[in-house]
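Box 3.1. Reading complex inputs
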Amino acid sequence: VYTINDHNICCIVNSDVVYNITNRLHSCLFDGNTKNIYIIGTGLIGTSLIKRIHNISITDYTFNIIATINTRTMEHEDYGTHTSDLNRFIEFVLTDTYNNKIVVDCTSSNLILNYYDKLLLNNIGIVTPNKKGNTQSYQSFLRYTSYISYKYETTVCAGLPIISTLKNLLLSGDEILSIEGVLSGTLGYIFTQYNNTDKPFIDIVKQAEQLGYTEPNPLDDLNGVDVMRKILILARICGISMELDDVANELFLPPNCINSKTKAEFYSSLHECKPEKKAGFDIHYVASFKQNKASVGIQYVNKAHPLSGLKGNDNMVIITTKLYFKNPIVIQGPGAGAEVTSAGVLSDIIQLTF
Amino acid sequence: VYTINDHNICCIVNSDVVYNITNRLHSCLFDGNTKNIYIIGTGLIGTSLIKRIHNISITDYTFNIIATINTRTMEHEDYGTHTSDLNRFIEFVLTDTYNNKIVVDCTSSNLILNYYDKLLLNNIGIVTPNKKGNTQSYQSFLRYTSYISYKYETTVCAGLPIISTLKNLLLSGDEILSIEGVLSGTLGYIFTQYNNTDKPFIDIVKQAEQLGYTEPNPLDDLNGVDVMRKILILARICGISMELDDVANELFLPPNCINSKTKAEFYSSLHECKPEKKAGFDIHYVASFKQNKASVGIQYVNKAHPLSGLKGNDNMVIITTKLYFKNPIVIQGPGAGAEVTSAGVLSDIIQLTF
């Protein structure tokens, strides 16, 4: 209910949203360009983000890092340093009187997800590269993404413009026919090396580990679960109600590798892993979404296929739509790493509105 | 000057912006998702846009096409059909009492540019695939782009996410080291054909014309001016004060072609045009921006270069930055055509805020 004339705008709202609306209006009129940031997780990405925020020279925005927390301690601009206590940290976020509060979840943990709903409901923004939030139940994905103040571009291929491109295509009324690509820099690197050398598969995996391209235990890359999460997110953005279990994962590792409990056990069985090569084709670990089905696994692509142009530890995403049908949109580049991820996170922080 | 408590937000503004602010506040509180659209130009892109808007099934937004104008007639939802009169059309736009008014400049003409400032100043949005606006003086580029309600993603490579990606990189504090690419689908097609066949250059140009890939007179593609405009826009987005004349254009056409006045004259000299091929290299018409300098012209790229993967009439843009240094971001796909352009325009309309 509202009336409007040249002198007044009057709007009647339910009393329970008065605080929220007043805050929003205040942001909108006065200091929409101040961002008050709470960082959860100060590992590689969190640390890189803090450095990036301190060094940024954009004068249009003011960035205040109000508080940070890791598994050991938490620091708050106003309340000093304390032993880590996530509940108390979230209480700070909820009750601090700053405007435009944004929580950045730089963990890869499930722990923070318990607070997402409460934060978003209280008009606190969330920016996250953490894939876990988007890959719980489809219902929670729908809930989170119903808030414009929830930004998650970096959950797929870090700073590469995959999610925004997909969303823009959908917004404009285009229809996504298929998404395929190499969504893991680690697996991209391993298979590119495997295609172009005669080295045994196990040697290439060890080399990738030595170069710092893998998780602490490379099994966590090679089992494909991370890639499943990424293609699941893209499928869900396309409006498909799908759970992680619905993503088909054709394993190429020997069972002993998959079931290994330690890195030593993993490597002791990996020498049996010899993915078959085919003349005239490259072998790649491809995620694909097509006809409402998602899958991850080894695929053979001919030399004319965009994926055969993959280099180093690049990611590549190929989006075929009703409009981009004969020739798809292809986006390629580094899709992991603390620096490019934190840059993407900062870009999300800047674009976040309430 | 403002005061705020739990019950009131009071803000004192200059009387000359009261109308503008009241409008903005109204959009912000009540119907930010209604878009009232005025379309200038009903050629291929304009017509495709109108069809797209009529067919769109997004329920979050309401799109009203209030009026359209072409060189012959104009139609207004409330005032009916009239002989085309651009001044009067703009008066409609300025005085109509709708909120969230957006003018879409689907022409390739200079005529509309005279009104850009007045429209933007009056809080009317502009969405445009028309490169002319962004390639006048650097000062006018700065003026237009200082408004968030000016959207121009489709001025470079149509619906491909080039401008948004560049802006996001810059926002996040990254530094652009170079941009290079094939920014013309026409020239991409012509040189890909030239690389992969033994046909004379002139035959390939004629073939491209027959396929509808060229301007009415192919000289308008081959003189590189359109590509100059595109790389100029990208350079300006990077913050470089540069004019169209500052873009180096190394012509590869014989002087008689360049100076030809008609298509017949153009073709009669084109048979002299035989760009030299080099073994092991592909030849492409490349736009590049590097070390604050922009240029367009023929370049030889080796088979490992991303551009050698170019297909059909695709565009390709390669962005190398401080963060994406070893491996650049590569975006490839169709970068022209009424359908993908109008989809990009619609995406801009949806994202436009005041």
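In summary: The longest strand of chain B covers residues 281-290.
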